[in-house]
Amino acid sequence: MASIAQQLLFRRKPVEDERLLQLFWNRAELKREFARLQRDRASLADQLRQQEGSTLRWQQRLEQLEGLLADPERAANATVFFQLRGVWQYCRRRLARLARELSARQQEAELRRETARFEEHRKIALASIEQRLVPLIERRVAIEAELHGVRLQQARLTSFWNLLARRRCEHAQAVLDAALAGVQSQIERYEKARHEKLRESVTPAATIDTDSKRLVNLSVIALAQELVVQLTSHNVAHMARDASLRQVNDVRYGDLQTCHQTGQQVAKVLQRLDELDDLPLLVRARAEYLRRQVEYLRDADTVPIAASCADIPVLLSTADSPVPANDRRLAVNVLGDEYWEIYSVLLN
Description:
The longest helix is centred in the N-terminal third of the chain and has 85 residues, at 72-156. It is built from seven helices and two strands; from the N terminus they run αααααααββ. With 348 residues, the protein is an all-alpha fold. The protein folds into three domains: 1-71; 78-111 and 208-344, no CATH class; 116-199. α4 (210-230) crosses α7 (279-293). Strands 1-2 form a two-stranded antiparallel ribbon.
């Protein structure tokens, strides 16, 4: 009886050990999951605090704006302020759109040039393969013809006294078979190379090169300068930059009548800019003028030194001869003063 009980105890012990081990594993897994949930909870609590802070700040700004709008004069000043902010963003969007369009054109032009070079190189490579392939094919035809003749000769040698002649034919056939296999192997290798070369295609570059980026950037700078020139009337360009740097509570443009007049002037200047049909020609002339004037710190740089475009010629002649038409210049550096947030648009 004691031996039977001992055997049952030994049988039961591994099962209990397995269950105990499983409990430890489950406990460790639960502790890891609990720690992860605590980290998630802390992260969500932090995000909630940040969101509450952001909401509070926006609520305060809304209350301030409501206070501004409650006072007619302050409301008029706020209207002019946001109108000038709109002019600033309008000009920035025009710069960004020009940069996107020109970048796409430059990328297409580079792809065309790269495709032409690729096709030329592939044509040369295929001609080289064909030059090596033609003699091999001719050699294969000659070996096959010779092999066919040996086989015909061997087929006629049926008598027993032609035993030595048949052996000579067999040896010649083996030599020709080996030569044919070698030639066929070379032909297959060249045909595979030709097939792979025909399957190759041009991979578009991830970005345009330095020269193309410089062309795009010069056009963007030229547009920024031309926008400053066009918005110089009634000092709109300077006021728009000032509005981009300040808060609505910090500005004052005058009384109700003055704000009304300023708003009308800004609207008229912006309308004239929208209706300017010669803007692309003016920008092209400025870009060509800048290309001859600007300097770069390093050969790899795509943005010119700000000091090399420190002022803006007010009038330029045609794009065929992009030189200042008079001596009038604006002491505005669109790069140094970061007009229209230009550095967020320029390609680096």
